[in-house]
Amino acid sequence: MTPAQLYTIIALGIYAAAMALIGCISYGKSKTLDGFLLGNRNVGAWVTAFSYGTTYFSAVVFVGYAGQHGWNIGIGSIWIGIGNAVLGCLLSWLLFANRTRKMTRKLQAKTMPEYFHKRYDSKGMKIFAAIIIFVFLVPYSAAVYKGLGSLFSAVFPGVETWVWMLIIACLTAVYLVAGGYIATAYTDLIQGIIMIAGVVCLIVTVLGHDSVDGLTGLFENLKAFESLPGDPTPTTGDQLTNIFGGSAFKFLCVNIMLTSFGTWGLPQMIGKFYAIKDTAAIKRGTIISTAFCAIIGCGAYLIGSTSRLILGGQLPEGGIDSVIPAVLMEVLGGGTLGIILLAIIMILLLSASMSTLEAVVLTSASAVAVDLIPTVSKKPVKPETQMLLTRLLCLAFVACSFIFATQNIPIIVSLMSFSWGVVSGCFIGPYIWGLFSKKITKAGAISGMLAGLLTVGITTLIISLNSGFSAAAAKSPEMGVAAMAVSFVVVPLVSLITKKPNEQQVEEIFTCYTEND
């Protein structure tokens, strides 16, 4: 066993023990359904802010997005991190946090499907939303497993990737099933601190590498970069140093929109607003979460933009998904300090992934246990039965995601983009318009949901028939952005020509904004 492997195993053991302990401690606060899913709606600013940020960023951001876009686009890819912080985080908190908190409390909605049901008086929307969440978040979480598994395989080349994915799945299941949302929230706080420390350490180490030579050297050396003969991804120094992405400007804009506006419709992100305790906590949480996202997002893409210099322009054997693992091994693989930092970075990436996984698993399990089964069941489902079902479905979802991840699907970024686009494309229109407008009809909301799904589904079918599924997967960011735009536009347009909602019922719902906390 090498020193790097030993230090990583020790760090992993300490981390796993801490997460399991938090799950056990939180068990007493998660015995009711409201406590298990929302922490009794009494979660503070720091915990919610870090929970939002850590759910936003997983190992896929580093391995997939930052690795691919940093390698292909260069310095301009940092705009994705800026967009995530400003549009995906700051604007989301400012526009939706307080309204979501107040309306979901008024409606007594614990989940996104339940919000749709009670806001639009539609059981059909509740069932449809629950199915969409469970089906399409499986590949989303599988992408997280794949990203993290490839990183650990770089440090432990003799161990199969699926072994690491299984360890991650078991660890996530233990503390999530035991402690529910409150356990995930407090582990997110710890994970967030680890992520910040890890990213800062990695930035300093990467910029200090001889091939990079600091921030100024990064620009100068990238400017002089020339692709090697036979490079499968040739580029120029002008491209890598173009602050606006050069020839990749359109591609850059699409990815900024997908990864930023996409959070506006993702149930695992919006769910954080359900649980925060008051308006004062939201004001503090907005600042904290935005700062966190700026550090992690911009840091990840900055690290990715150094990859061609650190790897000498040679794409790793594993392709684009192996760029960041190769960079880590190059800059941290030697010396005691480097080995210790490598162990810290591995825990950083484990933290980033597990926080995303736990949010996705909890969202998906509750969609079935709380929204789908009680709605289609002929007999009333007792709260304690729902609790048991939710815990069991958390285990089932982890298992499904693990099995899906072990299938040889190599395109991590496209896989996550596809799922992200479908889920957000279905929900973004009905969710946002439902918060702000009294004129939105049930038909309008349903149409927006279906329009988002069909935009991705029909486009995927057409491209797949003509050019194969891999070509469709490559277009997943554009499809996701289109689905969100279509959903957002269709909802109010259909509402103009369909039967108006019950005015008294809607007015009662909107009194939530005038009531005291």
What report would you give on this structure?
- The N and C termini lie far apart (56 Å).
- Helix 7 crosses helix 17 (383-406), helix 16 crosses helix 17 and helix 18 packs parallel to helix 21.
- The protein has a single domain (3-110, 140-408), classed as Sodium/glucose cotransporter (Up-down Bundle).
- The protein is 78% helix and 0% strand.
- With 517 residues, the chain is mainly alpha-helical.
- The protein is built from 22 helices and no strands.
- It is globular, with a radius of gyration of 22 Å.
Keywords:
517 residues, Sodium/glucose cotransporter, 78% helix
Give me a quick take on this structure.
With 517 residues, the protein is mainly α. The chain contains 22 helices and no strands.
Strand content: under 5%
Order of helices and strands: HHHHHHHHHHHHHHHHHHHHHH
CATH superfamily: Sodium/glucose cotransporter
User: How many domains is the backbone divided into?
Assistant: 1
Which CATH first-tier class would you pick? Mainly Alpha
Q: Uncertain spans, ≥5 residues at pLDDT below 50?
A: none
Write the layout of secondary structure elements.
Blueprint: H1 3-26, H2 33-38, H3 45-56, H4 59-72, H5 78-107, H6 112-120, H7 123-155, H8 161-207, H9 214-223, H10 237-241, H11 249-261, H12 267-275, H13 279-305, H14 307-310, H15 323-332, H16 336-376, H17 383-406, H18 412-436, H19 442-467, H20 469-474, H21 476-496, H22 503-510
Helix pairs in contact: 1-8, 1-16, 3-8, 3-12, 3-13, 3-16, 4-7, 4-13, 5-11, 5-12, 5-13, 6-7, 7-8, 7-15, 7-16, 7-17, 7-18, 8-13, 8-16, 8-17, 11-21, 12-16, 15-16, 16-17, 18-19, 18-21, 19-21
